[in-house]
Structures are given as C-alpha cells and as structure tokens.
C-alpha cells in the first residue's frame, strides 16, 4: 500500500492565533505533509483537487453576481456558451443517483438560472432536489429530511433564486444557518448559481463581524440575506433589516431549537409577511421542531429521505485504544491511509489545539479551527483548507453541520461523541454527494457503551478496523463512473 507519510518531515510551527500550521520546508506539498491539499497518497508533490472558489464573500457586505459576458439571442444554442467544470467521473452511491430521471429544465426555471446551475457542475437533480424544488416553487411550506451531502442547499437555493424579483428593492429571502462557516459557504453557492441573473444582491451577515458595516449595507439594495440566528435577530430588532416583504424563509440544518423557541425570536414572526413561505431542511430534527411546525407552518409538505440514516458511501471502523495510544494510532493511520483531505474531531477547543501541535511535531502539516478563535482567523482557515492548502484539519463540532468540502475522504473521531446526532453529522463530512468516504473512531474503554448505543440508534454497523483497509472503499481513483473497480 502506498503511504501518506513524508520521507523528509517538514519543519513546522504552530500559530495559536490563526489556527494554521506554518510550513517552512520545500516538502510541504508531499503526501501527508498537507501543504498540497488534495491528491492521493502516492509519491511526489500533490496538486490540490479542490476547485478554487470564484469571488469572495465579505462578511456583512453584499456581493452582486457578475453579469454575463455575452448576449444570448433567442435562437442561439445557449448551452454552447456555458463554461462547464470538468465532469465528475467519481462513483456515486444511490443516495444521490436513485432519482426519478428528472432534469433541471423540467421545472421551467429561468434560462439565466439554469446557466448558473450547469456551470456549478450540477448535471441532474438529486432525490431531495427532485422532491422539494417543484413544491417550493408552488409556494408551499416544506419540512424536509435528507442525508448530509445530498444536495439540500441546491434544493432550496434554486427555487429561492427563481422567485427573486429584481424590480423589487427589498429583502425577499432569508436563509438562517447555524454557523458562520456555513453562512459563507451558502453565500458563495448562491452568488455562483445566480451569476447570470443580472444583479441578484446577496448579503452574508454573522456574529463576530462589524455590526456597523451590516447597517450601512442594508441601506442599499439587498435581495437575499444569509445569516446566523443571533445577528439577524439583532438587525431585525434594531429595525435595520426590514423583513415585512420577505416571501421565503429557509432554516438550514435545523439544530436551531434555540432560534425557533427563544424569547428573542418571538418579535420576529409578527414582522413577517403573512404570505411567507417557510422551508426547513436538515438530516436530523429535534422533537421540539414539531411545536414550531404547529405554530408557524401552514400544512407543510413533509419529505423524508432518511429511511437509512448514514451515507451509503461512508465505511465506518473503530480502533480500540487507550487514551495514551491515540496519538500513536493517529500517526499510524496517517502513514497507511491514502488521504486526500481529512477532518479530525475533538470534543473540546483545548484538545483541538493540543492535538494540532502533536500532529505538527509528527511531521504533518495541519490547520485547526474552533469557536473560541477570532472570526477573521476562522474565515482564513476555512478558506485555505477548502482551497486545498492543507491536508488535515483538527476541529470541534463547529464543523459538523453543512460544511461541504468535496476533497475530504477521511474523517477521524479522535474523541468519540456521546450523541448519535453529533456522530451522524461528523461522519457526513466525507462521502459528500454520493462519493466514497472513510470514518475511523478511536474508542477507549469509557466509550464502549456510547459506541453500542450509537450503532443501535442510527441502525448502522461500525466494524473493527482491519490491518489493511481496501482503498476501493474510500479512494475515488479506484472506481470508474459505473462503480467498477479500476485496476491500477
């Protein structure tokens, strides 16, 4: 088996300020070193396999999509003018391929919106998109459950953008997400998909950024606001964000029980239009969401694609270790696995920083991120890891919801979670959009009951880790489009 280790360890230093390990050696891009980001675990420098995101998101500022470069006449074959990304030839599981055979063009969407959809590389609707897009376009409330990484963001952004009226100078759609990083990600997707629509103004606003900048920006035209709960409530209470003409509200990754039932939220609902449409999307729903449905949703259309909770493309293993053996075990995994990018979860911010330091001492570069870091440093780590500048990321549960980084093929629970919901969202960071992934759990004596409980709760099997892990279980190049193993 080819390894992901470096023959010449890089010289590394840990910065406690920005969560990034500083590489000062020329071998930083070698396998296992992480400086090259994506790529397999073979020899030689690695090229990042994460597509660079076009454009930037300025927190608290809106970004208008660029206008098309060429005018498309009615008789032109408009698809010929599209700048399509390379076709994704990786195998996909039935989580995203078990569709009814619909096309995006079947939904009578604006041509400019279709252009953005295809240029994102979205070829056909996934099952959750097939189920929810036509219902959302009809204006009906939706309560949707679907697995992590199966296209929920597209399921609500496409109908949201279709219904935007550029002639109306007001906030028409509000998307509320649980974390700042997810707000950045959704904003970027929204901007890219709408880039041919000629002036959709998207604003991302989150806590930890300058409130004055948000207030100034809202004096100008904004059509779509993507926000974290605390910041949007603050802007609404101050009368800065006027939501009386909002026609669509999306609650993405509804772990937002605190938002749904907080006393601070109560003043929000009377300010909304009575004709509002509410869409709730998540892989898991707490029971308290039922109370919210009864109070605020009008005969919602319910979608449940969660008969099986875990992703079919994610293979799960556990390694039984003592606490003192965890770092050694992690080092062994780094040397034996063919890691493209990995996310390593710890249960506290302090353990995240300590583990990042240990990993750097072993000769592997890594970033770390947790909620106690300054927002600008979190933004930088998220941006750089997503763009393939590092192979390994150590984090807390800050990164468990919604974050979509296609190059991640290995997730390691350095600390095993106590809740099945947390476990489900953690391992869902790999195997995105039906692709292959590997989840490895380091289990101590104290974790043994949690392991059994989570298996029973999620109806899944976590197997003992074998001596050699078959690369075809988690390495894309060992599979063809048809799912057949490719001979090296």
TrEMBL record:
**Per the record, where are the segments of Basic and acidic residues compositional bias?**
73-85
- Leader peptide range in chain numbering: none
Biased composition range(s): Polar residues: 48-67
- Which GO terms label this protein's molecular function in UniProt? ATP binding; hydrolase activity; RNA binding; RNA helicase activity
Q: What is the recorded name of this protein? A: RNA helicase
Q: Which residues form the DEAD-box RNA helicase Q domain?
A: 102-130
Q: Which GO terms describe its cellular component?
A: P-body
**Key word Phosphoprotein present:** no
**Listed Pfam families:** DEAD, Helicase_C
Q: Which CDD domains is this protein grouped with?
A: DEADc_DDX6, SF2_C_DEAD
In this chain, the stretch annotated as Disordered covers 32-85
Please note every region of biased composition (Gly residues). Answer: 32-45
**Motif Q motif: positions:** 102-130
Q: Which reaction does it catalyse?
A: ATP + H2O = ADP + phosphate + H(+)
Where does the UniProt entry say this protein principally localizes? cytoplasm
Which key words tag this protein in UniProt?
Answer: ATP-binding, Cytoplasm, Helicase, Hydrolase, Nucleotide-binding, RNA-binding
Which SMART domains does the protein's record reference?
DEXDc, HELICc
Q: Where in the cell is it found?
A: Cytoplasm, P-body
Q: Which domain of life is it from?
A: Eukaryota
Which parts of the sequence belong to the Helicase C-terminal domain?
A: 313-473
Q: Name the protein family.
A: Belongs to the DEAD box helicase family. DDX6/DHH1 subfamily.
Enzyme Commission designation: 3.6.4.13
What residue stretches are annotated with the Helicase ATP-binding domain?
133-303
